[in-house]
């Protein structure tokens, strides 16, 4: 899991090659920038797929799924969220490179390909966050359904006892039976509120914020560009 893979080194090298001196790429021409970007993207995608497949495999190997012990369940959500945010950062830099450094010139405007590329990267970011956790989501759903079915059977059995006592005019220990029914109602409600998605709410909020921000930047940039043309 923590082994340093060659694709990680290539990814970091490509990132540094762009981030340290983006102006150099702009001055040398779009060929240099495109080559470096493609090398980085290929290495990043390869490393991402390898890492996220490993997460899915570990989730499939898990044997003890406990709906009430969330720490082990949440173990990999931060990793997949960081991976998705890393893809979103590519979009950040793409906007910075082409619209603030004017790599293609100050008059360059977003094309259909640019828009489609942004959408594809956003979908890839979302998939990198959600898909590796989907297997655990289904397993948690199955465990939740099992516990809910057990609670329903107990509730049905308690109701049957209640009806039997009412039909026979036997009201002894009715208070205990009422307490049992109330406890089962609380259990069923508690189970219904448990989420089967294996991430913390704050992890999801952080990811959604990182995804929404480049979209907002894109919209504002496009709006200002059209406004300045008027």
How many individual helices? 8
Helix-strand string? HHHHHHHH
| Principal-axis shape | elongated
Number of individual domains: 1
Low-confidence stretches: 1-29
Structural class: mainly alpha
Mean pLDDT: 76
User: How far do the termini sit from each other?
Assistant: 54 Å
Write a structural description:
The chain has one domain (6-139, 199-229). Helix content is 81%, strand content 0%. The chain is mainly α and 230 residues long. It is built from 8 helices and no strands. Mean pLDDT is 76; it is low at 1-29.
Task: Record keyword descriptors for this entry.
230 residues, 8 helices, mainly alpha, 81% helix, 0% strand
Set down the secondary structure blueprint.
Blueprint: H1 6-19, H2 22-28, H3 30-61, H4 70-73, H5 77-100, H6 112-167, H7 174-193, H8 201-229
Helix pairs in contact: 1-3, 2-3, 3-6, 5-6, 5-8, 6-7
Quick recap:
By secondary structure, the chain is mainly alpha-helical.
């Amino acid at each position: 899991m923590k082994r340093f893979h060659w694709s990680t080194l290539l990814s970091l090298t490509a990132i540094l090659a762009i981030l340290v001196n983006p102006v150099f790429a702009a001055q040398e021409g779009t060929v240099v920038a495109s080559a470096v970007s493609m090398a980085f993207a290929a290495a990043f995608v390869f490393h991402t797929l390898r890492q996220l497949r490993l997460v899915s495999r570990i989730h499939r190997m898990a044997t003890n799924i406990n709906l009430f012990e969330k720490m082990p369940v949440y173990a990999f959500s931060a990793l997949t969220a960081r991976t998705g945010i890393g893809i979103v950062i590519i979009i950040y830099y793409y906007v910075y490179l082409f619209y603030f450094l004017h790599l293609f010139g100050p008059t360059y405007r977003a094309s259909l390909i640019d828009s489609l590329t942004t959408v594809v990267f956003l979908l890839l970011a979302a998939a990198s966050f959600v898909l590796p956790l989907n297997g655990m989501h289904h397993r948690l759903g199955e465990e939740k359904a099992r516990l809910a079915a057990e609670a329903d059977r107990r509730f049905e059995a308690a109701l049957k006892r209640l009806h039997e006592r009412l039909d026979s005019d036997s009201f002894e220990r009715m208070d205990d039976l009422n307490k049992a029914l109330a406890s089962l109602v609380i259990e069923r409600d508690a189970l219904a509120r448990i989420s089967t998605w294996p991430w913390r709410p704050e992890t999801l909020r952080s990811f959604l914020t990182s995804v929404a921000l480049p979209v907002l930047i894109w919209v504002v940039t496009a709006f200002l560009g059209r406004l300045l043309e008027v």
